[in-house]
Specification:
The two termini are 35 Å apart. It is globular, with a radius of gyration of 20 Å. It has two domains: 122 residues, Enolase-like, domain 1 (2-Layer Sandwich), CATH 3.30.390; 218 residues, Enolase-like C-terminal domain (TIM Barrel). It has 13 helices and 13 strands. α1 packs across α3 and α7 packs parallel to α8. By secondary structure, it is of the alpha/beta class. A five-stranded mixed sheet has the order 10-11-4-13-12. Strands 5-6-7-8-9 form a five-stranded parallel sheet, with helices on one face. The protein has a three-stranded antiparallel sheet with strand order 1-2-3.
């Protein structure tokens, strides 16, 4: 089975209303829908994106430029593609947009293989679990008032979630503490609560705020420092009892290897777009397992569920429904867990009727 074509389609996905975090205001997403077509009539699909549609053209061009590494070749030789692509991007560097381009094609090729085999990816990748604990991440934003936070947290519980994440980043740390306390009081001690600083603090601020947060029994304190400060993050992690989660902005096994060497985080959070696709997500997952370190996912719940289902050390799926309408199928939940689809490949296919609606 050979690849005959790679097609990319840009689409702007709007939010119902703007949201705020320490990264700034978000109102839309510039998505690139990637389709890898084969001579067997099987098409593999994948998705990459940018915030607010910024640099979308750059991402699309990267995927298009890498297409010559797969067109005309065996669609099932994914490791061969990854190795050749890694060598091909050497001049531009092994982080950033080049790796996102590899991720886009890698995931689409895995979708082809799953569909051709008639198996979901998690089974092809070894199969570890049919359900993964999920936390609701599509709310509790920095831009919400304390009353809005409480109301939304209560809605998440009513939806069946047993874990949720809120954002930090107020100019006064006491304001963050007040907001966390309000949410914790509203949800009680049995619901898991995570808090994300979105890389908005320095080392001293992170340690101070982290110590102030410890009475609230957070499941984790996420990304307190900029992604490049792995040494500082290790010192924050060592100073706090609350587990540190990080890694969504890290690239490939080499970045995560350094995180493990430094003990920068207690939970690693690879992102399918930045880590290098399915192939590299699994390498990072197994490497973390060899250090007895758990992994969670970042965004992309419809696709991340498959790689998490293949890892015994996967602890949480981040449920962020930003792109859910782009798919025909919906993610299923039971007792606070996301169920791994048994459909072939990703188990999710693009809803082109909805895509055409967006592109009008």
């Amino acid at each position: 089975m050979k690849v005959t074509a790679v097609e990319t389609l840009p689409v702007l996905v709007p939010l119902a209303g703007p949201i705020g975090s320490a990264l700034g205001q978000i109102h839309s997403f510039g998505c690139i829908l990637v389709s890898v077509r084969t001579d067997a009539g099987i098409t593999g699909e994948n998705l990459i994106f940018t915030l607010n549609g910024r640099r979308t053209k750059v991402l699309r061009q990267m995927v298009d430029e890498l297409a010559d590494l797969v067109v005309g070749r065996d669609a099932g030789h994914i490791a061969d593609f990854w190795a050749r692509a890694w060598k091909d991007i050497n001049f531009l560097g092994h982080k950033g947009v080049p790796v996102v381009g590899i991720s886009a094609l890698d995931g689409a090729l895995w979708d082809v293989l799953g569909k051709a085999s008639g198996l979901p990816l998690y089974r092809l990748l070894g199969g570890a679990k049919t359900a993964v604990p999920a936390y609701q991440s599509g709310g509790l934003w920095l831009s919400s008032s304390t009353g809005e936070l409480v109301a939304e947290a209560e809605r998440f519980i009513a939806q069946g979630f047993k874990a949720m994440k809120m954002r930090l980043g107020s100019p006064d740390p006491n304001t963050d503490i007040m907001r966390v306390k309000a949410v914790r009081d509203a949800i009680g001690p049995d619901i898991k609560l995570m808090a994300d600083a979105n890389q908005g603090l320095n080392e001293a601020q992170a340690i101070r705020l982290g110590r102030m947060l410890e009475p609230f029994a957070l499941t984790w304190f996420e990304e307190p420092l900029p992604a490049w400060d792995l040494e500082g993050l290790a010192r924050v992690s060592a100073a706090l009892d609350t587990p540190i989660a990080s890694g969504e902005t890290e690239y490939t096994r080499y970045g995560f290897r350094r995180m493990l060497e430094l003990r920068s985080a207690d939970i690693l959070m690879p992102d399918l777009q930045r880590v290098g696709g399915v192939s590299e997500f699994m390498r990072v997952g197994h490497m973390a397992e060899s250090h007895d370190v758990p992994v969670s996912s970042h965004l992309f719940p419809e696709t991340s569920i498959q790689v998490l289902g293949a890892l015994t050390n996967a602890v949480y799926l981040e449920y962020m429904p930003w792109f859910s309408k782009l798919y025909h199928e919906e993610l299923a939940f039971k007792d606070g867990n996301a169920m791994v689809p048994e459909r072939p490949g990703w188990g999710f296919t693009f809803n082109h009727d909805y895509v055409r609606h967006l592109n009008r």
